[in-house]
Write a structure and sequence with these properties.
With about 800 residues, this protein is α/β, with parallel strands linked by helices. Helices cover about 45% and strands about 5% of the residues. The longest helix is centred in the C-terminal third of the chain and has 31 residues. It is globular, with a radius of gyration of 27 Å. It holds the Pfam family NAGLU_C.
Length: about 800
């Protein structure tokens, strides 16, 4: 068994990872809190109604066959009772007593469920074979370090026992279903459920296909398909129509979508249950179609306010919420749960309910919330809306018998509500009876998820220095000192944001400013671009607080010099692991990060030159910025994890006909650009919220958008006139709307050598040679040849 890490203090590494440990160490908080008899009842139901041992063992064997078929006979899996684990959830890794050479089982893994067995399997691969598991888009699994069958490493005599310090490991956010899962088929879902099991996740959200259930429930109240067409959002926006933020946007949903998603949900639930997971199904929050209000005029219904539409457009905004005190609320909620159980054949008795998500409740003095099954409520609403003062919070939380509701404190890595609410006034919550990962989108930053999932099995604080030092060895399949040094730098910089700010992906390229240039502050700028990083303060923060501006400068929380040095180490040692897909992903991602921050500085230099009326410099810098965007697109095209094509092709792949294909592609394109509605001169309030550094998107959309802004900068200087903000907006919005409806096909296959491309971009933009002087020379040559222009 590996030596348990010491509790030696280390620098803060990813607040969201440490909050779990901190919560378990708070006086009066017990990680295995048994003060809630309702939760004990649920645990007993899980034990009685769970899948059979044979089914869970078979699920784990299936995972082994898919992940490591060459070793299918090297492992034996067995389900054991919690009594054999000291009354807790655990897994045990043993040397197999019948091992007798290749072809016979070498390692015996025992666990209280298929999830625990799978987590034990992952633990063995990770800590004894130096293997690594991540999503395919982030490089996939590194399994080359695993010895051949018959030669697997032995574990200590007596085996390795790992107990969970807490019961549940929660996964997903209500909006992950739209930002990441929207276009998944069963093949992709099967891989995700395998990943969940390997990470030890036993409490995943399972929201797919619920619109079909809602259709059946509302049909009982004579709500027609056309009524529901205005209620359900489109395929890429279902998360927000489910939470009563909006209605109809991106729709209507074809009946085939409803049917196909329901069939997919049945496969998802069947596999989750087979592993011994406890899927969290949706519950009724009060969100109703507008037509229901007219059919029940005496019902207590509130017309909610605008949620981010332009000009409060009633076509999409201002949904209806049925009061929880109305008898109809309980009736509909009961029907919905019963219909799910009838359709799926079983339940884990845990449901998710998101009420008042980014909406202010209709009552200020009291909240009535009837709960007749175990509910899960998101703590995000307490963070988002100032309405939620302590009396309102306590009234809501205590309106449900304590123990029948679990609060998900999903923004706890930045603003933990449990700290300022007396631990949710005694109501159990995720961090207290479980740990969780509630990101809005997945398939990024694999180091975060690798460590976060492991935290569910640690009883003491992890020695992060040791953990980070071993990470690149597992990630790339071999120890490379220079890459270990690079990751140590990244751990202290990129992965050490402690300022409590969010919106870290708001760089100029992907979230272009929609303001008049004089609004943008340009503090502490540096004329010599060769010193663009080294002349900044050591922490490289924006020199002046721009909170009063209409434009928020991109968030910068680390020393860019240090991160550039980490990139240099990646490039110096890249040949040693150039065949590693995980390395190529990390290299592209790191290069992208460095150049994105460089682009922010180039943009500020453009604005400074504009304010100084230096037209020649503006021209050169604008071309430099646009060239950088195209070069970044080339870099991103070299890895499958940074392509626009798969997102669009998977959307079209779910269509049954050409009409659906057009609709689904529009949904996919809209979500990552304009997001919501707009007018000719008013952009969506949610524009660029789901921006992506994807090849195809930069060259085809972000670059042309920047070029429009630059064109108007130059026209302003030529005419000695104010910047034409309204015309910029008109052209940019037109570009976006046309792009949303376009049908251009983008590659779903990576091309190019990531290492060579990254090296060339480093030389071009980050080396000692002045990139702008080179750009200026190129512009002079081009001008002499009359072959090009800036735009």
């Amino acid at each position: 068994m590996p030596t348990r890490p010491s509790s030696t203090p280390a620098s803060r590494f990813l607040q969201l990872l440490l909050v779990v440990v901190i919560a378990c160490a708070v006086p009066g908080v017990r990680c295995s809190d048994r003060r809630f008899p309702h939760l004990d009842r649920v645990r007993e139901l899980h034990r009685r109604e769970g899948s059979s041992s044979a089914e869970q063992e078979a699920a784990a064997r299936g995972l082994l066959a898919r992940l490591l078929p060459s070793h299918s006979t090297s492992f034996e899996f067995r389900v054991i009772s919690t009594e054999q684990c000291g009354g807790k959830a655990c897994f045990v890794i043993n040397n197999h007593p019948l091992f007798d050479g290749e072809g016979t089982p070498e390692i015996l893994i025992l666990g209280v469920s298929g999830v625990e067995i799978s987590a034990g399997f992952h633990w063995y691969l990770k800590h004894y074979c130096a293997a690594h598991i991540s999503w395919y888009k982030t490089g996939g699994a590194q399994l080359s370090s695993i010895p051949h069958p018959g030669s697997l490493p032995r574990v200590p005599d007596g085996g390795v026992l790992i107990q969970r310090p807490i019961d549940w490991s929660y996964y997903q956010n209500a909006v992950t279903s739209s930002y990441s899962f929207a276009w998944w088929d069963w093949d992709r879902w099967e891989k995700e459920i395998d990943w969940m099991a390997l990470q030890g996740i036993n409490l995943p959200l399972a929201f797919t296909g619920q619109e079909s259930i809602w259709q059946r429930v509302f049909q009982r109240y004579n709500i027609s398909k056309s009524d529901l067409d205005d209620f359900f959002g489109g395929p890429a926006f279902l998360a927000w129509s489910r939470m009563a933020n909006m209605h109809g946007w991106g729709g209507p949903l074809p009946q085939t979508w409803l049917d196909d998603q329901l069939a997919l949900q049945k496969k998802i639930l069947s596999r989750m249950y087979a592993f011994g997971m406890f899927p969290v199904l949706p519950a009724f929050s009060g969100n109703i179609p507008a037509a229901l209000k007219s059919k029940f005029p005496s019902a207590k219904v509130t017309h909610l306010g605008n949620w981010f539409t332009v000009d409060s457009n009633p076509r999409w905004c201002c949904t209806y919420l049925l009061d929880a005190s109305d008898p109809l609320f309980v009736e509909i909620g009961k029907l919905f749960i019963e219909e799910q159980i009838r359709e799926y054949g079983r339940t884990s008795h845990i449901y998710n309910c998101d009420t008042f998500d980014e909406n202010t409740p209709p009552l200020s003095d009291r909240i009535i919330y009837l709960c007749w099954v175990l509910q899960r409520s998101g703590g995000w609403l307490f963070t988002y809306d100032p309405f939620w003062e302590p009396p309102q919070m306590k009234a809501l939380l205590h309106s449900v018998p304590v123990g029948k509701m679990i609060v998900l404190d999903l923004y706890a890595e930045v603003k933990p509500v449990w700290i300022n609410s007396d631990q949710f006034y005694g109501v159990p919550y995720i961090w207290k009876v479980g740990v969780g990962m509630s990101m809005e989108g997945i398939e990024q930053n694999p180091i975060v998820y690798d460590l976060m999932s492991e935290m569910a099995f640690h009883h003491r604080q992890v020695d992060l220095q040791v953990w980070v030092e071993t990470y690149p060895t597992r990630r790339y399949g071999k120890p490379v000192k220079g890459l270990q040094d690079a990751w140590w730098i990244l751990y202290q910089t990129l992965y050490n944001c402690t300022d409590g700010k969010n919106d870290k992906n708001r760089d100029v390229i992907v979230a272009f400013p929609d303001v008049e240039p004089f609004v943008i502050e340009t503090p502490g700028l540096y004329v010599d671009t060769r010193q663009m990083y080294s002349t900044m303060p050591s922490k490289n923060y924006i020199g002046k607080d721009a909170s009063s501006d209409a434009y928020d400068h991109p968030h910068l929380w680390y020393d860019t010099n240090a991160v550039i040095h980490a990139l240099e180490l990646f490039l110096q040692h890249g040949d040693e692991v150039s065949d590693s897909n995980t390395f190529r992903y990390d290299l592209v991602d790191l290069t992208r990060q460095v150049l994105a921050k460089y682009a922010n500085d180039v943009f500020l230099k453009i604005i400074e030159s504009y304010k100084s009326n230096n037209m020649n410099q503006v021209t050169i810098l604008c071309q430099h910025f646009l060239n950088l965007v195209n070069d970044l697109d080339t870099l991103l095209s070299s890895h499958e994890g940074f392509l626009l094509g798969p997102w669009l092709e998977s959307a079209k792949g779910l269509a049954r006909n050409s009409e659906q294909e057009i609709q689904y592609e529009w949904n996919a394109r809209t979500q990552i650009t304009m997001w919501f509605d707009n007018t000719e001169t008013k952009a969506s309030l949610l524009r660029d919220y789901a921006n992506k550094y994807w090849s195809g998107l930069l060259r085809d959309y972000y670059g042309p958008r920047a070029a429009i802004y630059f064109k108007h900068l130059l026209l302003s200087m030529e005419k000695n006139a104010p910047f034409a903000l309204k015309e910029w907006r008109r052209e940019w919005i037109s570009l976006t709307n046309n792009w949303q409806s376009d049908r251009k096909v983008f590659s779903a296959t990576a091309i190019g050598d990531s290492l060579n491309i990254s090296r060339s971009l480093y030389i071009k933009y980050l080396s000692k040679a002045d990139p702008l002087e080179l750009e200026a020379a190129a512009c002079r040559i081009s001008a002499a040849d009359h072959t090009t222009s800036i735009i």
